[in-house]
Write a structure and sequence with these properties.
The chain is mostly beta strands and about 200 residues long. It is about 0% helix and about 35% strand. The chain has a four-stranded antiparallel sheet, with no helix packed on it. The protein has a four-stranded antiparallel sheet with strand order 7-8-9-10, with no helix packed on it. Strands 11-12-13-14 form a four-stranded antiparallel sheet, with no helix packed on it.
Length: about 200
């Protein structure tokens, strides 16, 4: 049957261009369900690679963070989210890396949907060299701030001092929330609750 692995698209100035690196084409690590990618800065602007989260590859199907060289198209597994030797692991089957961001300083953060306390999500920091993972913020622990429900994406603030988390079912009446996380402490606060009209149009 045809290979259903998702292609990895490399943005071009005029239109997206699909790079066949993530299609299970025999170029090292096989991507089964690639869901997000971001650029990783290289020294002096050279040697940068793409970071791709895959939700179903890795040990016990817990997903992985892959690096893809956009020039030679080769892939390698940077962090296997089911490998306990690489740090934090959530053993539940629904736990999987979803969204990824890379900082100008080389830091890497991954949002794990279905991970953390009560499967409410988790924000993980990944070592860019070893792939070792550390828990930054457990979205199911209310002592760190508002809890999550179904976090789906993360983005940096302009100064890269804050990480924003989009939660599709968080907040009032499960209409969604935008949270911000301090990457140093894991503390969270609500930026916008899409179930409260005081913030603007409802979600």
């Amino acid at each position: 049957r045809p290979d259903a692995r998702a292609p990895l698209c490399k943005p071009e100035p005029t239109a997206p261009r699909c790079v066949p690196a993530a299609r299970g084409d025999g170029r090292a690590a096989r991507a089964a369900q690639a869901v997000a990618f971001t650029g990783r800065p290289g020294a002096l602007g050279l040697g940068g690679k793409l970071l791709v989260t895959d939700m179903t590859t890795g040990t016990n199907g817990h997903g992985a963070l892959l690096t893809v060289d956009p020039i030679n198209k080769n892939r390698t597994v940077l962090s296997d989210f089911g490998d306990v030797l690489q740090g934090w692991v959530d053993a539940r089957r629904e736990s999987a890396p979803n969204s990824v961001i890379a900082g100008n300083d080389g830091s890497i953060y991954v949002l794990v949907t279905g991970g953390g306390t009560d499967s409410r999500g988790a924000l993980i920091k990944v070592d860019p060299s070893s792939g070792y993972r550390n828990l930054v913020s457990d979205l199911g622990v209310d002592s760190q701030g508002p809890t999550g429900s179904l976090p789906v994406a993360i983005r940096w603030s302009k100064d890269q001092q804050t990480i924003y988390v989009v939660d599709a079912k968080g907040g009032t009446d499960a209409r969604g929330t935008l949270l911000q996380v301090d990457p140093a402490t894991g503390a969270r606060r609500t930026v916008s609750d899409f179930g409260l009209s005081g913030y603007g149009p409802l979600g």
